[in-house]
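Fold these two proteins, one after the other.
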Amino acid sequence: MLLASVTTFAQHGKGSFNIQPKIGINVASMTNSEGSNPRVGFVGGAEFEYQATDLLSLSFGALYSQQGIKNNVDGVDGTVKMDYINMPVLLNFYVVKGLALKTGIQPGFEVNDKVKVTTSGTTVEMGLEKALKAAGVDCSVKSVDFAIPFGLSYEYRNFQVDARYNLSLTKAVEADGESARHSVFQITLGYKFGL
């Protein structure tokens, strides 16, 4: 038991590297979308971490992230699906053993943008920009997002629970002079493997 605890501590010592596969959920919304509901979606991927000092580490990763919004207007259910590969680069500050505050930058690259509409049991799905233009809306959908993540994590026996808020700085959609940005709360569970 003593050797196991020493090994666990050594994996996160100064100068160490680890990889952390993780999965979780997003609760995503968008600015300027009054009356809409959050889209609850999947997030998953992996992050690498370098422990620079006892208190500071640098992490970077790639996460598949389902974002967007849901809405219901006059009995018509609509879901805007905007999915990204997000690449967070974070500075982690360990307040106490296992508990870290984190912030950094996060570029994201869109891999899917669709609108799913359901009415009277019939479902139609099409590209977001195509759907808006078909409705007579002058619009553009951006393929790159840039966000600032803020969060905290707690690690116990290599398991880590991570909660973040990703505040988008770039416009995801521009339509008829209005713009919308992503606003995403994310919680994940991961496991750290020493490298």
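Now the second one:
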Amino acid sequence: MSYTIQSGDSLWKIAKQQYNLTSDKDIQAKIAEIAKENNITDINLIISGSTLTLPGLEATTDTSGSVFADWTNSSSNYNNLLTGNKVDDFQMFDYYSLGNTPGARGEKYGQEIEKFAQNYINQYDSNGDKNLDFNEFVNMQMESFEDMFGESLNLSSYELLSLFGDQFGQLSSIGDNDNNDGDEKYVDEYGLRSLLGLSQNANVDKYIDKYDADGDGKLSFEEYKKYNEETYKNFYGQEIDWEANSLLEQVEENFNRASEQNFTTGTINAKQFAAFFGVVDGQDGLVDGSMTYENYNYTPQMSGFEDALDNYYDDLFNN
């Protein structure tokens, strides 16, 4: 598989993300393999824009442009959208070729929108598992925004990252996909960034490696509590008094909030994305595989249509 080096990449980051590795030993071994495959003599020197061959990974769909690219680049559609003027329809698939009657077309609609959703996912599925993990979802949002508006998003905004987290959590929880393991509460790398107020690109491995006593790649409450104890001692030069000013309750509250958004094991699959597209497709009163101005203009906010998504999922996939 070929991979184009992005600004801010390192071989460590590429090996970890592209091969879904968690242990330092495995990452270091993979770095050596990548370096050998690409004749790299200095593993700390890679050039943005250059192409790497990643051994052992199958090629995935080209991610150089989103499904919106031709649509946005062929006209001033998004400028018109923002100013309330007419935009061209964006065709997900040819609805009227599915059958001669509304009933016949309706029977195949679910299959076609799921195919479209899978093709959409494939454009951002860097590890080839046919799903979107949180990193891939964020990259999708950033690339789509750049296609739409011609400029890059600034992920240093904590509010923006939280918004993406909310969206990802809602989509990935449709149906039987559960991001949490039973009643266990923990903080993964994304939750830890949230707790520490860090951006998406910030490296939190050093925190997890240091305080992850059981080596499961995430922090339990006791492990996170240990982090607070050491941080407090280093800053103030004394042991923390958990009874003072309800500090323990505050730490527990922060931990519980962050543990509600753990995305390390969560993914969005084609059925879940199809549910989203189906709800948006119906915003103009039609369910026809075509996104019109009314679809875009009245697309509900993610936090406001959980029931619609659930009902759509139940009707389309559980009958």
